[in-house]
């Protein structure tokens, strides 16, 4: 089950950054420009894959540079320490204060894996936390 996936808006913004690479290939179709176009396309594809899933036996955290598989029996969802600072609110209006980072602790390894798809500010991080806990409990029960 997909608990959280990166926003299509973010993927579209990253894809817009490909415009210069596309224009370079159109204006000057050299091998180097084609390679840059392919590399920028790979970045867009990888950004589109950022998500967190829970299936029958695994919690799968797909960040930009690494995908981590954690057995559901080992996974514990934790929120990091509150951070200072302000960010624009998801709902508009006031600023969100004190962001938090979402982690999954691997009990047997003793380390924590950052969930990159969860935003630091706003209420979305608590929704993802609660859904992850619920899905892990369902996976453990089955």
Layout of helices and strands, plus pairs?
Blueprint: E1 2-5, H1 8-16, H2 19-27, H3 31-48, E2 51-54, E3 58-62, E4 67-71, E5 75-79, E6 86-88, E7 95-97, E8 102-106, E9 111-114, H4 124-141
Antiparallel strand pairs: 1-2, 2-3, 3-4, 5-8, 6-7, 8-9
Helix pairs in contact: 1-3, 2-3
How would you characterize the overall build of this protein?
- There is one protein chain.
- This protein is of the alpha+beta class and 142 residues long.
- The chain is 38% helix and 27% strand.
- It has helices spanning 8-16, 19-27, 31-48, 124-141; strands spanning 2-5, 51-54, 58-62, 67-71, 75-79, 86-88, 95-97, 102-106, 111-114.
- The strands form three sheets. A four-stranded antiparallel beta sheet has the order 1-2-3-4, with helices on one face.
- Helix 2 (19-27) packs antiparallel against helix 3 (31-48).
- The longest helix has 18 residues, at 31-48.
- The chain is elongated and about 55 Å long.
Q: What average pLDDT do the residues reach?
A: 86
- Fraction of residues in helix: 25-40%
Radius of gyration: 18 Å
Work out the helix count: 4
Largest sheet: 4 strands, antiparallel
Unreliable spans are none
Going across the major beta sheet, what is the strand order? 1-2-3-4
Q: Separation of termini?
A: 14 Å
Structural class comes to: alpha+beta
**Strand content bin:** 25-35%
Morphology call: elongated
Total count of strands: 9
H-E order: EHHHEEEEEEEEH
């Amino acid at each position: 089950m997909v608990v959280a996936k990166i926003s299509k808006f973010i993927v579209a913004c990253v894809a817009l950054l490909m415009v210069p690479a596309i224009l370079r290939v159109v204006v000057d179709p050299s091998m180097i420009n084609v390679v840059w176009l392919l590399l920028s396309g790979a970045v867009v594809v990888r950004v589109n894959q950022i998500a967190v899933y829970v299936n029958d036996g695994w919690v799968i955290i797909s960040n930009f540079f690494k995908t981590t598989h954690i057995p559901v029996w080992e996974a514990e969802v934790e929120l990091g320490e509150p951070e200072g600072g302000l960010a624009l609110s998801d709902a508009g209006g006031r600023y969100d204060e004190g962001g938090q980072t979402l982690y999954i602790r691997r009990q047997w390894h003793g380390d924590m894996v950052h969930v990159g798809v969860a935003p630091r500010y706003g209420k979305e991080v608590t929704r993802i936390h609660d859904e992850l806990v619920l899905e892990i409990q369902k996976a453990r029960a089955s």
